Every structure is written in C-alpha cells, then in structure tokens.
Amino acid sequence: MSNPLLDTTGLPHFAQIKPEHVTPAITELLAVADAALERATSDEVPADYDAMSAVLDVATERLHSAWGAVAHLNHVADNPELRAVYNENIPKITEFHTRLGADERLYAKYKAIATSPAATRLNAARKKALSNAMRDFVLSGAELQGAARERYAQIQERHAALTTAYSEHVMDATDSYALYVDESRLAGVPDDVKQASRAAAEAEGKPGHKLTLHFPSYFPVMQYGDDRALRQELYTAYATRASDLGKPEHDNSAIMKELLELRQEEAKLLGYQNFAEVSLVPKMADSPQQVLDFLRDLAKRARPYAERDLAELREFARTELGLADLQSWDVPYASEKLKEARYAFSDQEVKQYFTEPKVLSGLFRIIETLFEVSIRPDEAEVWNPNVRFFRIERQATMGPSGSPQLVGQFYLDPYARTGKRPGAWMDDVRGRWARPEGRTQTPVAHLVCNFTPPSGGKPALLTHDEVTTLFHEFGHGLHHMLTQVNDIGVAGISGVEWDAVELPSQFMENFCWEWDVLKHLTAHVDSGEPLPRALFDKMLAAKNFQSGLQTLRQIEFALFDMRLHSEPGAEADIQKLVDEVRREVSVMAPPAFNRFQHSFSHIFAGGYSAGYYSYKWAEVLSADAWSAFEETSALDPETGRRYREAILEAGGSRPAMESFKAFRGREPRIDALLRHQGMA
User: Fold this and answer.
1) I need a surface site. Which of 203, 470, 517, 652 has the fewest CB within 10 A?
2) What is the average pLDDT value for the chain, to the nearest integer?
3) Is pLDDT at 55 greater than 60 in this prediction?
4) What sign results for the dihedral spanned by CA atoms 663, 666, 667, 673?
5) pTM
6) DSSP H helical segments within 177-328, as ranges?
7) How many CB atoms lie within 10 A of CB 379?
8) Is 133 exposed, middle or buried (0-12, 13-18, 19+ CB in 10 A)?
9) What are 61-80's pLDDT values in tens digits?
10) Residue 169 has pLDDT above 60, yes or no
11) Is residue 166 a contact partner of residue 609, using CB atoms and an 8 Å limit?
C-alpha cells in the first residue's frame, strides 16, 4: 500500500501509518474536499439534501477518517516525528473547516433546501440535521463579511494551534517528570505499584523505584504512602504541571490568556456578549446565568455535607494520624485511612478482586443482557500490542440466514504508557451513515483508559474507581455504536447537546454499585473467589464517603469555567478568578502554589469550554434515568429496551429533553441525584 491514509474505505491501517504518510495524504484529501466544495456550490448540483450529501459529505467524511487516525495516534502513540507533521497539518485542516463552515454559497444552498417545499417531507432526523447545519453556519461565521470574516478565520487557525500546544505542554510536563526513590520511602504503597515502579527503574538501568506523574504511579503514593515528605514532593510537582512554577518550556500561562482573548473576540464578532453565550447555543442550558444559578444552588445543598466531611477528616487526621495541620497532600492519604477505619476495608483490598479479564467479561454480559446484542473479539490493525478490537452484533430478525447483524465495532486501549495522553476518553473512528452510494456504514469507536498494565505474570488489577471509569467510557461508546439513526450529522453522539452527552456514560456507572451485577465482575487474582458480600456491603456503606467534598470540587471547576468564559477580562488574572471561586465554594482551599488550571485540558484543549457544568447536569439526568431501573431491576430487559430505543438509538436526531421524556415520561428532577449521593 503506497499511502495507508488514502484508503478510507474500511478500518484505519494503524500499523502501517508513518509520519511521512501524513502530509501527502492530507494534502491530497484536502484537494479532493476543496473540489467537492466547489462542485457542491455550483449549479451542477441542485439544492437537494441527498445530492449535496453525495458530493460534499463523501469527500469531507474521507478527510475526517484520515485526519482522525492521525489525531488519534498523536494522542496515544506520540513521538517527535508524528507530532511535527501533526502540527504542520493542523492549520490546513482548521483553515478548510473554517472556510467550509463560513462559505456563503454553501449556506445559501442549505437555506434553499430548508425553505423548499421538499423540506416539509424530510424525516425527523434529517430535519434535525438540517436545523443543526443552519445553526452551525451562523456560529461558524457564515454571515460575517469582509474584515470580520477574515479575522474569524484567523482566530480559528490560531485557536487550533494553541489548544494543541496546551495539550502537548501537559503531556510533556507529565512525561518529563521522574523521581527515583529507595524502597524504604514507599512504606504503605501497594505491592503491585511497587513492582511496576521497580520495573520502570530497571528498564532504565537505575536502582530503586521510578515514580511519575502518570496517575497509576502518582495517586497510589498519595493515597497509601506513609512518607509525608514524599507525598508533598509529588503533589507539588503534579499541582504545578505546565505552569509558571514548572519548566518554562511547558508553561501554559500565555497560551491560556491568548485562548480566552480569542474566544471572547470570536463571541463579539458573532454578536454575543461573551464566549459562554456562544458555547450554550447548541446546549440544553439557556444562559450562563442559568448555569451559574444551577451550580450555586447545588453548592448550597452540598456545603453542609462537605463541611461535615472535612471536620471529620481533620479530627481523624489529628487524633489518629498525628496530622495537626492537614494539608492538600495529606487528604487522599488521610481519607483512605479514615475510610479503612470506618468501613474496615481499603481500595487495595477491593482491587484484588477486579481483574481486568473478569471485569470486561462482566461488562460485556451486562451490555448483552440489557441491550440485546452480542460482543465478540474481532480483528483489525492496532497501534500497540495491548490494544484489542471487538464487534457488537444483533441477532437478525429478518432474512433466511438469520446471521448476526453488525451493529458497531470498537478498539480498547486500556493501559498507561509514555507518549499516551493522560485520562480516559471515547472517540469516534467513524459514525453510522446510510451512505449516498447505498450501503449502511456501521459506527466504530475508540475506548481509551490509562490503567496500570499487568505485571508479575498476573492480570491487570483495577480499583473500583477504575472499573467505574471503564463503564463510563463504555456508556459513551454505546451511545455512539447502538444508534439506529442513518444521518451521519445526528447519529450516535453527533448532534447531541453537550450538556446531555454525559448522560449515557454516567448512567453506566450505576451498575458498578449493584450487587447482582458486581459479583459477576469479580474473581480474586490469587484464589479466584468472587467479591464477598460483606466486603461489598462495606463498599456500599462507603459509597457516599466525602460526597459533599467531591461535589463541591466539581462545582468549583464548573463555576471557574463558566465565570472564566462569561466575564470578559477574566483572562487578565486567571489566578485571581481561581481564588475568588475557591473562596465562594471550597471548604478547604489548596496551597497558593496550586495551578490546576494550567493542566485543565477539558476547557483549554477539549470540548468543555463553558461546558464543564455538563458533568453535574448530566448527573441529574443519569440519576433520574437510573431510578427507572430501580423501579424494576438493574438488568430488566424491558426497561433496557426502552432506554436503548429512547436514548441510545435516537442519538442526536431530536432534542435531548425529548429523548429523556420519551424514556421517563416527564422532565428530569434533581431529587434522585441528591438521594444517590446521600445528600437528600
């Protein structure tokens, strides 16, 4: 194959893609997409939805597939050569999409489609796709003229470069940190973590143990390490990543300021008061003030519980651990000790029962039972030996053969490694689409986590939090893969309001707290015995441990995000705003050197700018949706079918509120969330 990126008819050829393939392929595919744009806007193609799609969507989807493969490799297999060509081509991709979204000729063609008699005969999904397209043309500057149009395009190109640089700084700051310590300093740290850190040091020919800021290395030391000075040293490094207090070459300070200035300038060009207003146009929330009111109301409800949580923690740390001055680097450690004392179990004890193979098979069984599908291993080219590929099938109800019907496929990349972006996420490889040439394209997803790899000949062990993370990302994946919508713009997660997109992911987390479900996810790594009911009961009793503190922490992030993007001028002193929000919300302010905003990739390099509140709003939706299963049972197929059809299969083909009401028969209520989190 001369250039694997040019073959976009099937799955990406990840094993064959090399940095030298990127620029020639993207150059060629951009030329094809440019030619398609010219043809689509000419008299040759009528103002007809299908005719336009056959020309333009086919070309742009091919470009999306190729660039998506490059961007994915940049996130999970970063190296200097790939990064260089990725950054070289980002401006070209951005320029094309900016020009496409603001093309007056294309906008006029779609307006003609929207106002034609034929528009009334479009099905609901296509009407929604057309409505979204009209809205997005306006938000993409299609109605701007002259200098304003040129400036808008410049902003988009610069914004894309800055978000990439921000993400790279966080990754580089994380990857470049290493602390080598003797075993004596790791008292209290779990054996599997020590084995991994020893192996990491040995791989470099160094004695002792290598600690990093990657979460599977960092957090167990914070949670279990008895060496307070070591916890303080690691916390300081983690809390100052990519900031003015770290290495200058990784400092995100100037990038953050410029990003915010560009976003506010974009808002003014589009006729809005601030960027938050722009961000909310395609969301469920009506205004920044509505979001602020929601967050502050929730903070008011949670605060008494958070104050109680902190008072209990301080007292325990003082009397039982000798920590009279509880600091931020003590909180995970003291919290774990308090949880062990109160509920007589530790996360480390629980972790021994959650082997990755058992968790995966249990997760698959849930999906198969509830959503009437089958999950099978499949084959595809992958970018790392630890990546696996699966297919989701539904037993065909029609046809003489009765052969299974392919619903979707997914890649699973579970383990942390150098060159891989921190965190966990779902991303699309391609969406469901009734293609113009007549075949139905099935959806494919990436499911990416950063768990500790297997070691010592044993399978990988997951904490209960990591199990929950896995279920969360699978919820996104199911939303993408189980859709039955055939218009690519509103199939699966496409077109779903951003503040509703977390509903299916957070919904899946609830299964991690159901005994009839959880017992099938567990087998002790040594004995093979399932999780004891008595241990589960302790976990359940501890489920809402410090829920007040955790709720306020999320509200702090969301409030900071919304104020940052709704108050022009806030970029002049971001730290000042951080401090103001903490004074309003936090019950225990972190040290003055904490620079969490410098690695807050969700809002500076992801899609959550003026949208981080979505996590809390989606918790309201998911808790209320889950209450329908509480009324029947966690694995009730009938309730699962209604949920699948109303939420997952509908995708973005209608407003999220309509989908929610189709499932629950009413609008969402906050009481289920408060009850689930012990704050009723």
Assistant:
1) 203
2) 95
3) yes
4) negative
5) 0.87
6) 191-203, 215-224, 228-239, 253-269, 275-280, 288-320
7) 8
8) buried
9) 999 999 999 999 999 999 99
10) yes
11) no
**Residue 429: its H or E element:** strand 425-430
3-class DSSP state of 415: strand
Cα 272 to Cα 610: distance, rounded to the nearest angstrom: 14
Q: How far apart are CA 485 and CA 491, in angstroms?
A: 5
Q: How far apart are CA 603 and CA 592, in angstroms?
A: 21
* 30 Rama class: left (phi>0) / alpha (psi -120 to 50) / beta: alpha
Residue position matching structure tokens 């995000």: 561
- In this structure, are residues 474 and 642 in contact, taking their beta carbons and an 8 Å threshold? no
Asked whether 610 and 559 are in contact (CB, 8 A), the reply is no
Beta-bridge partners for 410 = 390, 445
Distance between CA atoms of residues 142 and 100, nearest Å: 9
Tokens of 647: 């939420």
Q: How many C-beta atoms lie closer than 10 Å to residue 71's C-beta?
A: 17
Whether 336 is catalytic is no
Name the burial class of residue 180, with classes exposed (0-12), middle (13-18) and buried (19+) by CB atoms within 10 angstroms of its CB.
Answer: middle
- Closest to 348 (Cα-Cα) out of 524, 555, 150: 524
First to last CA, the chain: 61
Q: 372 burial class (0-12, 13-18, 19+ CB within 10 angstroms)?
A: middle
Which of 336, 393, 473, 619 is flagged as catalytic?
Answer: 473
CB-count exposure of residue 108 (10 Å: 0-12, 13-18, 19+): middle
Question: Where are the alpha helices (H) located in 494-636, listed in sequence order?
Answer: 503-509, 515-518, 533-541, 547-566, 574-585, 601-604, 614-630
Of 204, 193, 205, 203, the closest CA to residue 234 belongs to 193
| pLDDT for 396 beyond 90 | no
In degrees rounded to 5, what are phi and psi of residue 447?
Answer: -120, 115
Of 189, 262, 193, 255, give the one whose Cα is nearest residue 226.
189
Residue 429: phi, psi to the nearest 5?
Answer: -90, -45
